[in-house]
Write a structure and sequence with these properties.
Helix content: 25-40%
Strand content: 15-25%
Shape: flat
């Protein structure tokens, strides 16, 4: 007893910190008296050191062994104190991995790398297909049937995401829990030969190297498509792994399944390809066999005759497949293509009223030589709209004619038109000769990763790029209005000045999307009006965050029924008067002019001055809905301290997946922040705003603001 009391009173300056901690831990192990144990545990809470955190965590996990309620309370209090300490972060844990070893799993359990994204699905989402599969995989981990590993970068990503979504304390606690169950795989980047991975991103290459270094049986990831080019065979998605595993979940069955994942993945891709071919009956090859038009008509025959008088004769025969009725028309022109298209128009006039105009036909050689393939693009105008079609053929005349015929089907029988899925060469070669307009075409299978991908200034409105590989492609100033980019790979693409208005980016890979020389985000110089955005979260703070938020707000479509929800902590009332604040205020006023509603909660300090009143009055008079809450009341709303936090939510009620939230957090002199399009983050921040709004004092232009300010603390 005497030693315990004496040790608790020794100041740090007299005895080295390590000696104090070791002494306290030793006495705690030998102390049975509840009061003394509580006193030692309370003292330990003053030392945010790895061995202390580990000890408190173990005590918390065995709380039922402590019979005294007061001891249990001190364990929880001290653990919260150390895990909430500013010095405890992901770097702290990575530097002390030896103190937080994972529990020994069954020695028979196969070692498996579990992707961080899969763990996040398990931790953060529910009632989704991905979550159910992630839960089943993590269930095998918790049952000891899988000996799990995670990459160091994945652990860092999880910590930052939890910190941003919840708090530093929650992130620290989760990392301790993960480290008790999962091994951390570490590799030295300098030792990796990145030339072995020319077609995969750095994150994927690192995970493969970890799997090889630790002799892991395989990798389970929701990003399995990114591993296809890595050459590592033992990779599979949760769904493919579980489907292949079946009901036998023994360690031997799991290891056997992992060894067969590469083969299973290949079979899975073949099945998808066969299904795709079955659902696309009208491709270039099929078109030449059938030459179907519409309404039961087909092109039965066509021919070209060239005479010595420089005139070309063309004949086209149309036939009804049911009645066998026929129309034969001919034309004489100087050019073969001109003659053939004219003869076709004459025959077509028997079926429809011909009102179109051929604007242009462009030719591009795909392969050199006499037997090279030819691509032709036809542009036709009809009823004020332009229709574009492309056809590739070894016969130059057929390439022209079939491109034109397809345009006629698209114009006069759009319901019967089946657009081709165009190849990478068709797109790149036409662009190379100066063609820029490709609107409405289907490029869902193009792969520009290994080609000089230049689509700058291209008109790609309404194009289908779903699942296309556009990695590293130059899309500078391209118009992608209404384009389908869902699940496309846009990593490292250059989108400077690109127009993505009303585009669909669901599931798109936007890793390191390049916009200019200084930024690697999607937000600069790109129009995102009503764009269906992917679940992306960008950590960004300071002036650059505010500038990007301002740019996004400027592009809000007034017709989209959007509204702004904001929280501003007025600890510094002169912020609205500095150049950055004035610029942001101008954006606010422009939104009000465009009839976009703004609700703002001001968090006010106890010491206020006339400047606070002036700012609030100006915003209230401009048409902004204003509410006030004192700093003390904002320190705990929904379990979060809001007195040093700014928040802005742009909610798009017409296109919900275009909504985003931006947050700025001050921790002493340190500032952090993010811009997030993640649905769960937007919903969380909106819920917190609503809670703050409910607790706040609402103002009206007729009210006496000075009186309401005086009553805030009562």
């Amino acid at each position: 007893m005497e030693n315990t009391e004496l040790l608790c009173e020794i100041p740090t300056s007299v005895t080295p910190r390590a000696d104090i901690i070791n002494g306290l831990l030793a006495q705690l192990d030998n102390e049975q008296n509840s009061d003394r144990r509580a006193e030692i545990i309370r003292k330990l809470g003053e030392y945010p050191e790895p061995q202390v955190i580990k000890k408190l965590w173990d005590l918390r996990n065995n709380l039922e062994s402590e019979s005294d309620d007061f001891v249990q309370y001190e364990i929880k209090l001290s653990l919260r104190k150390v895990t909430n300490h500013p010095s405890i972060n992901i770097d702290f844990f990575l530097g002390n991995l030896e103190v937080f070893p994972s529990k020994d799993n069954n020695s028979q359990a196969p070692k498996v790398l579990i992707d961080a994204a899969l763990i996040e699905e398990f931790l953060l989402r529910n009632q989704t297909t991905l979550n159910r599969e992630a839960t089943r995989v993590m269930g095998l981990v918790l049952e000891g049937k899988i000996n799990p590993y995670i990459g160091e970068m994945g652990l860092i990503k999880i910590w930052h995401n939890i910190k941003n979504l919840k708090s530093r304390e929650d992130a620290n606690r989760l990392i301790i829990e993960l480290l008790s169950k999962i091994n951390v795989g570490q590799v030295n980047l300098k030792e990796i030969d990145l030339e072995k991975y020319p077609n995969v991103n750095l994150t994927t290459a690192i995970q493969v190297e970890i799997a090889r270094k630790y002799s892991l049986a395989g990798i389970i990831t929701i990003r399995d498509r990114e591993f296809i080019a890595s050459g590592y065979p033992f990779v599979g998605s949760p769904s493919l792994f579980l489907q292949s595993l079946g009901k036998d979940t023994s360690p031997a069955s799991i290891e056997r399944t992992l060894k067969n994942l590469g083969k299973a993945a290949m079979e899975h891709e073949k099945e998808k390809l066969n299904l795709l071919l079955e659902n696309e009956p009208q491709q270039n090859l099929f078109f030449e066999d059938n030459l179907l038009l519409f309404q039961g008509w087909k092109i039965e025959n066509f021919e070209i005759l060239c005479a010595n008088n420089n005139l070309t004769s063309a004949t086209v025969i149309l036939c009804n497949t049911k009645t066998q009725e026929r129309y034969t028309e001919s034309a004489f022109k100087k050019g073969s293509v001109d003659a053939l298209c004219t003869a076709f128009n004459e025959a077509l006039a028997h079926l429809v009223e011909v009102k179109h105009t051929l604007k242009s036909i462009y030719l591009a050689n795909l392969t050199p030589g006499q037997q090279g393939a030819i691509t032709v693009k036809a542009a036709v105008e009809y009823d004020g709209k332009e229709v574009i079609t492309i056809h590739t053929h070894e016969n130059i005349l057929k390439a022209h004619f079939f491109a034109y015929v397809k345009a006629m089907i698209a114009v006069y029988a759009p319901d019967e038109y089946h657009p081709d899925i165009h190849s990478t060469k068709e797109l790149t070669y036409l662009h190379k000769i100066g063609e820029r307009d490709f609107h409405g075409l289907n490029f869902s299978q193009v792969n520009l990763m290994d080609t000089p991908g230049n689509l700058s200034d291209a008109k790609l409105m309404g194009c289908n790029f779903s699942q296309a590989n556009l990695s590293r492609v130059n899309l500078t100033n391209a118009d992608l209005t209404g384009a389908d980019l869902s699940h496309a790979n846009l990593s490292k693409a250059n989108l400077t000045g690109a127009n993505l208005s009303k585009a669909n980016l669901t599931g798109a890979n936007l890793t390191d999307v390049k916009l200019d020389e200084n930024n690697l985000t999607l937000l600069d110089g790109t129009i995102l009006t009503n764009t269906i955005m992917p679940e992306i979260n960008i950590e960004i703070s300071g002036e650059s965050r505010l500038e990007k938020v301002a740019q996004l707000l400027k592009h809000i479509d007034p017709k989209s029924q959007s509204r702004i929800l904001a929280v501003h902590s007025m600890t510094d009332c002169i912020w609205w008067d500095n150049p950055l604040g004035q610029k942001f205020w101008e954006v606010n006023k422009e939104l009000i002019k465009r009839e976009i509603s703004i609700q703002r909660v001001f968090i006010l300090p106890e010491a206020r001055n006339p400047k606070h009143l002036q700012v609030i009055q100006e915003q209230l008079n401009s048409g902004i809905e204003v509410a006030l809450i004192c700093q003390e009341k904002a320190k705990d709303v929904e379990g979060y301290p809001w007195d040093d936090t700014n928040l802005l939510i742009s909610e798009n009620l017409s296109v919900p997946r275009n909504s985003f939230t931006a947050r700025r957090i001050m921790n002493g002199q340190t500032e952090s922040g993010y811009i997030s399009y993640q649905t769960r983050v937007v919903e969380t921040d909106k819920s917190i705003f609503n809670a703050l709004w409910e607790k706040s004092e609402k103002l009206s232009t007729q009210a006496n603001i000075q009186e309401q300010l005086a009553n805030l603390n009562t």
